[in-house]
Specification:
about 425 residues, alpha+beta, Trna Endonuclease, Chain: A, domain 1, 5-stranded antiparallel beta sheet, 5-stranded mixed beta sheet, 11 helices, DUF1173 family protein, DUF1173, plasmid
């Protein structure tokens, strides 16, 4: 399972998960952490990394908690609650220094292309620089899509284990996103303070959305809304769309969708919109600006980004990837989908990581046969062979096998 709690080693003494969590041990566990405050602990998850943890005091209380040191998440095992993928395993490698910074308390600070605070004179300049920079240069800021990928990855929603079967639904997804947003900050504030999530009518989620919207807009803050798109309806969605069609928009203000904003999204996310029209689940993230002197019941969307996910909420970048994700699931495999963030095509990382072979193994789907793509394919093949050896990675030439009749067997489990 994910986010597993392992024994902790502090000053030579090993403390079990039960001692860390059960109510009967709450007082002695707090005493252990308080006495060790200022030193470090060591996670006992099965990994070869150092796995050092800092002992932190909770803000505004006399409590203590454990947190991974910044940049050490990859030292933990994949199922450990302190795990985080190394930047080079995904598109996270495409950012310039300082765009994403991890604190020793487990928090993450990001520099967004468009800031959370409306009165941010540098935000529009950063957005223009980020979206129009030359290929091959590190991104100077994170776009809205990159932020969605970050929250999805930090929520561990891009990872699947067979034990999760039947345990991932919209409620679980929203909870995981909200927990991640508590740790991610931009414009010097937690994203949870401006995050709206899909909710049912008259639910706690709807009440939370309303409270967040009212609080954020009175402080002149931009809101973030994350939800699946509503099921595609030809009559309502084939023409001009004046309101962002989210599933479960309750508690949110009306998300007015300017034609230019939707036109831009349609160009950038043509594939995702096509998948939506075919019935696939597509996640939308929207950034909205509070109105000036108007009712909070209606706000303008300033940007939309889209991401296709499978039935298990795993992101995919093509229908071929969706085929492999489904086959991995049917085979009872454990796997992770590394996300692209804002990386260029020049950054190399696999379409999936297989997590149950003893050593994480890359899976690659080659889906095109154009001259430019074949040149890129040769570069990636050479890189994989160099890094993992001929037998250390898996691939499927979907361009030559579009119906998936000859998909190679996956490497066996350890």
């Amino acid at each position: 399972m994910l986010n597993r709690r392992y024994p902790i080693l502090i000053s030579g003494t090993r403390y079990s998960p039960e001692f860390q969590t059960e109510l009967q041990y709450a007082v002695p566990w707090k005493s252990v952490l308080e006495k060790a405050y200022g030193n470090h602990a060591t996670c006992q998850c099965p990994s070869s990394g150092a796995r050092k943890l800092s002992i932190k005091r909770r803000e505004g209380s006399d409590g203590f908690h454990l947190a991974r040191f910044g940049g050490t998440g990859h030292e933990h095992s994949n199922d450990c609650r302190f795990y985080a993928p190394a930047p080079e395993r995904s598109g996270m490698q495409g950012y310039a220094a300082g765009v994403v910074e991890e604190g020793d308390d487990g928090s993450i600070r990001v520099r967004l292309a468009r800031g959370i605070r409306v009165q941010d004179p540098k935000s529009e300049e950063r957005e223009s620089t980020t979206l129009n920079r030359a290929p091959g240069k590190s991104k100077p800021a994170m776009t809205l899509l990159g932020l969605l990928h970050l929250l999805w990855s930090e929520s561990r929603l891009s990872t699947w284990y067979p034990a999760m079967e039947g345990k991932r639904n919209s409620g679980i997804v929203n909870y995981a996103l909200l927990q991640a947003a508590e740790r991610v900050a931009a414009s010097r504030m937690k994203l949870s303070g401006v995050l709206l999530l899909g909710a049912q009518k008259d639910s706690k989620g709807a009440a939370r959305n309303l409270a967040v919207a009212n609080s954020a807009m009175t402080r002149d803050l931009r809101l973030l809304a994350i939800s699946p798109l509503a099921r595609y309806n030809t009559e309502r969605h084939s023409g001009d769309i004046s309101r962002l069609p989210l599933a479960g928009p309750f508690g949110m203000p009306m998300l007015n969708l300017p034609p230019a904003v939707w036109a831009t999204a349609a160009r950038r996310f043509e594939r995702e919109l096509s998948a939506w029209k075919r019935g696939s689940r597509v996640i939308a993230v929207a950034q909205v600006t509070p109105p000036k002197g108007e009712s909070f019941s209606r706000v303008d969307v300033v940007e939309v980004a889209l991401m296709q996910v499978t039935e298990r909420w795993i992101p995919v970048d093509s229908d071929y990837e969706a085929v492999i994700e489904s086959k991995l699931h049917a085979s009872g495999r454990s796997f992770d989908k590394p996300l692209r963030y804002d990386a260029d095509e020049s950054e190399v990382f696999p379409d999936f990581w297989l997590l149950d072979t003893g050593k994480d193994l890359p899976l690659e789907v080659f889906g095109m046969s154009t001259p430019v793509y074949l040149e890129r394919k040769a570069i990636k093949t050479a890189w994989y062979n160099q890094e993992y050896g001929d037998a250390g990675w898996w691939s499927w030439n979907a361009a030559a096998d579009p119906k998936g009749k000859d998909i190679p067997p996956f490497p066996p489990k350890a």
